């Protein structure tokens, strides 16, 4: 979609949608025109009935006789029949066009909006996601987009139909009898006012229904995801009772909304009755007194029905409108969320050497927004929250460096900054001399093979998962990477080898198997920089030793950054950096650091069993 939606929340959501939907404007206008024509042809038969009565009553002085110059009554009726057929056909054609247009629009627009919103969400910063429940996002991308679809499918055309109806029928009334028009229109403000009142009172009840539906959904999602824990703790009955409670609340909320909404149409019917009776009696008297043509009288009686009946649907239409508008606002607000981390313009060469450098990098997960820092005390608070406080790191191309430190020291944060999952508050991070923010995100992330602590696999086959970062990789390349990650042997033993489905999040594999596949997945890309964050923590000692040997081989050809708690796994690194309180406090080879008798030496002593005690 070309033009961005105006981000001013004061602008009405429909105007924002209009601004967004540049490609659809012509179709929207066509749909509106078709709907207006459809309504006009739709009320034509009532007019024609009046004209027919006019023919019967006034014969050669009739309306048809005057306009078409046909004097014979039978011929006048043929003329009328011809006009009726034409009006009927045109009504059908315009209805077809109108339906096709609105339905087509609703499909295309909902598809575009959903995809734009989804793409936008994918580009948003990780920090943004951490502040939001994924359930709410799912609601916007799912329910809200569907709500917009329903509004365009049904609501928008109903609004146009109702408006056209009031204007066209009102014009007929005014032309025939201004006094009666006034009387027939009296119920309209009552109906509209009543509808709005109903809406206002129904609104909170519908909101409660949606809220309750959200709770049921959230509970079901959480329980199905944690089914193993539920079983392990024997909590099935308790959980079933919780779901039953939430489900009953949902039903109760719905019942309360239904009780009110069911009363709407009967009440509106009373208002219509008034209008109808007034037209019937007063119009009838005028006809009897000879002040109103019989044909016109019949038109008015039919028209009152025409005018007022569609208004019974006003409540439903307003409901669709309100829900649609609320959904449009939520979707467009999401689309207007600014992207913090944008792709740069520079490309890294495919065979970039992969030197990594951090210079005086400061970072906190909760940066104080500019201008919102407030007076002096804020700076202390910010200082407290800093995870990295002036980090320097120099990893020359092709070397293997390790980062160690206590849990929570900020080791994973360092590699997340390198991947630009977050942006530093100060300092620079560069790959081969290029600041990461100047690099295109795909080329930066494409140069890094990342194996995180979270061994996330997608619901697909082993081969699908291995190809995730390199869709064009050959079977041979997959096998080679799997061999390096000590995964090939167990994959071959799986029922369908590389074509075995791994299940949602890889649940059909063991923790160690998942970990080995995530390592293989990173190696398939043959990246210039390999980042291993606790990559072997879930495998047994034997497998770990085997993976170590393979990694030693692969790390010779590329820059490797390893984060590990088990120091035995990184003792051969070119350099080891000890992270403490947001800075590198010691750097050197294993032997140098042990000899220096500092923090690293203390950690090493604990792990080799020489000393038992706390370290940090
Ligand atoms: N997304 C986040 N939002 C807020 N704070 C975070 C977030 N991720 C990490 N932190 C905090 O930042 C600090 C550093 O976390 P980090 O994951 O980098 O530590 P680590 O050294 O890798 O720890 P571990 O060895 O346990 O993996 C911790 O205090 C942690 O609580």
From TrEMBL:
ABC transmembrane type-1 domain ranges (all copies): 29-323
Looking up CDD domains in the UniProt record yields: ABC_6TM_exporter_like
- Main location as per UniProt: membrane
All residue ranges annotated as the ABC transporter domain in the record: 356-606
Going by the UniProt record, its keywords in alphabetical order are: ATP-binding, Membrane, Nucleotide-binding, Transmembrane, Transmembrane helix
Q: Which residues cross the membrane?
A: 182-198, 257-282
Q: Does the keyword RNA-binding apply?
A: no
- Which InterPro entries does this chain map to? AAA+_ATPase, ABC1_TM_dom, ABC1_TM_sf, ABC_transporter-like_ATP-bd, ABC_transporter-like_CS, P-loop_NTPase, Type_1_exporter
Q: Tell me where in or outside the cell this protein is found.
A: Cell membrane
Q: What is this protein called?
A: ABC transporter ATP-binding protein
Membrane disposition: Multi-pass membrane protein
In its UniProt record, a GO molecular function of this protein is: ATP binding
* SMART domains from the UniProt entry: AAA
């Amino acid at each position: 979609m070309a033009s961005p939606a105006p981000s001013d929340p004061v602008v009405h959501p429909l105007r924002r949608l209009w601004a967004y939907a540049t490609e659809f404007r012509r179709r929207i206008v066509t749909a509106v025109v078709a709907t207006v024509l459809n309504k006009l042809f739709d009320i034509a038969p009532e007019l024609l009935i009046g004209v027919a009565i006019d023919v019967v009553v006034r014969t050669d002085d009739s309306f048809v006789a005057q306009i078409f110059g046909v004097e014979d009554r039978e011929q006048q009726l043929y003329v009328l029949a011809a006009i009726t057929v034409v009006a009927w056909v045109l009504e059908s054609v315009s209805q077809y066009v109108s339906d096709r247009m609105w339905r087509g629009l609703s499909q295309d627009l909902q598809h575009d909006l959903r995809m734009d919103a989804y793409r936008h969400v994918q580009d948003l910063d990780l920090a943004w996601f951490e502040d939001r429940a994924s359930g709410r996002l799912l609601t916007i991308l799912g329910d809200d987009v569907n709500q917009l679809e329903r509004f365009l499918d049904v609501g928008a055309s109903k609004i146009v139909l109702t408006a056209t109806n009031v204007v066209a029928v009102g014009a007929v009334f005014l032309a025939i009898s201004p006094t009666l028009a006034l009387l027939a229109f009296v119920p309209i403000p009552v109906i509209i006012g009543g509808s709005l009142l109903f809406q206002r009172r129904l609104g909170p009840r519908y909101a409660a229904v949606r809220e309750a539906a959200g709770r049921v959904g959230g509970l079901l999602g959480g329980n199905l995801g944690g089914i193993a824990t539920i079983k392990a703790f024997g909590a099935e009955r308790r959980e079933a009772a919780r779901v039953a409670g939430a489900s009953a609340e949902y039903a109760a909320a719905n019942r309360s909304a239904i009780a009110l909404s069911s009363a709407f149409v009967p009440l509106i019917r009373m208002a219509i009755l008034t209008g109808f009776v007034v037209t019937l009696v007063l119009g009838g008297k005028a006809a009897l007194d000879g002040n109103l043509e019989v044909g016109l009288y019949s038109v008015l009686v039919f028209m009152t029905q025409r005018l007022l009946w569609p208004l019974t649907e006003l409540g439903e239409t307003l409901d669709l409108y309100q829900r649609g508008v609320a959904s449009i606002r939520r979707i467009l607000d999401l689309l207007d969320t600014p992207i913090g981390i944008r792709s740069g313009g520079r490309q890294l060469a495919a065979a970039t050497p992969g030197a990594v450098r951090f210079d005086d990098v400061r970072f906190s997960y909760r940066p104080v927004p500019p201008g919102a820092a407030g007076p002096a005390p804020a700076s202390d608070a910010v200082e407290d929250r800093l995870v990295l406080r002036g980090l320097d790191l120099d990893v020359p191309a092709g070397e293997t460096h390790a980062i160690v430190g206590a849990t929570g020291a900020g080791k994973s944060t360092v590699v997340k900054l390198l991947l630009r999952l977050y942006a530093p508050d100060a300092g620079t991070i560069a790959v081969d001399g290029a600041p990461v923010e100047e690099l295109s995100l795909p080329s930066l992330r494409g140069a890094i093979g990342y194996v995180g602590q979270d061994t996330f696999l997608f619901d697909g086959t082993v081969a699908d998962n291995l190809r995730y970062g390199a869709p064009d990789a050959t079977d041979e390349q997959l096998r080679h990477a799997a061999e390096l990650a000590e995964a090939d042997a167990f994959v071959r033993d799986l029922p369908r080898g590389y074509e075995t489905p791994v299940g949602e999040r890889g649940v059909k594999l063991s923790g160690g198997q998942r970990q080995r596949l995530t390592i293989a997945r990173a190696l398939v890309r043959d990246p210039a920089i390999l980042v291993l964050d606790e990559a072997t923590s879930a495998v047994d000692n034997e497998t770990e030793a085997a993976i170590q040997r393979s990694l030693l081989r692969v790390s010779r050809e590329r820059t490797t950054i390893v984060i590990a708690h088990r120091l035995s796994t990184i003792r051969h690194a070119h350099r080891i950096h000890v992270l403490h309180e947001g800075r590198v406090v010691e750097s050197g080879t294993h032997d140098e650091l042990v000899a220096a008798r500092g923090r690293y030496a203390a950690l090493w002593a604990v792990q080799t069993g020489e000393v038992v005690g706390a370290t940090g």
